[in-house]
């Protein structure tokens, strides 16, 4: 992701996650971070279709955010973004990938389970109206 993508990514994040959204300032902080982070914005034509952010610290990596535009959902873009993030984390030396997902997001849960993610635990009321499921996959 480049700095000029931030406003569009933040707008899409708001559409997808409402009150749990990241601010443009937070995306800026991720882009400027000296920690090994890869954030990818995917575009088709002039439209932003999806993004993913991953943080790597030694053998541990975390999916910080991932989202696909409603018009792009169900077409395999989330799978490609997650695969790219996992590959990037593995290439940076990570052996384990973690993420949090809203317990009521059945589409995302299905995707993550198909990638080999297992549930580690829950964070009650982490999101507006939903618990977070903490998941882990070995790379």
UniProtKB/TrEMBL annotation:
Task: Write down the EC number.
Answer: 2.3.1.266
Keyword entries, A-Z: Acyltransferase, Cytoplasm, Transferase
Q: Where are the transmembrane segments?
A: none
Q: Where in the cell is it found?
A: Cytoplasm
| Gene3D superfamilies per the UniProt record, alphabetical | 3.40.630.30
Q: Listed GO molecular functions? A: protein-N-terminal-alanine acetyltransferase activity
Q: Which InterPro entries match?
A: AcTrfase_RimI/Ard1, Acyl_CoA_acyltransferase, Bact_Acetyltransf, GNAT_dom
What family, per the record? Answer: Belongs to the acetyltransferase family. RimI subfamily.
Name of the molecule in the record: [Ribosomal protein bS18]-alanine N-acetyltransferase
What organism does this protein naturally occur in? Answer: Brevibacterium jeotgali
């Amino acid at each position: 992701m480049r700095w000029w993508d931030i406003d569009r990514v933040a707008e899409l994040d708001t559409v997808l996650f409402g009150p749990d959204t990241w601010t443009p300032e937070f995306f800026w902080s991720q882009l400027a971070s000296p920690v090994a982070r890869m954030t990818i914005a995917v575009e088709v034509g002039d439209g932003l279709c999806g993004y993913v952010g991953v943080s790597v610290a030694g053998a541990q990596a975390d999916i910080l955010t991932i989202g696909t535009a409603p018009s792009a959902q169900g077409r395999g873009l989330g799978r490609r973004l997650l695969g790219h993030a996992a590959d990037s984390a593995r290439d940076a030396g990570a052996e384990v990938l973690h993420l949090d997902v809203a317990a009521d997001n059945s589409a995302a849960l299905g995707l993550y389970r198909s990638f080999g993610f297992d549930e580690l635990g829950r964070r009650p009321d982490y999101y507006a109206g939903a618990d977070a499921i903490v998941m882990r996959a070995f790379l």
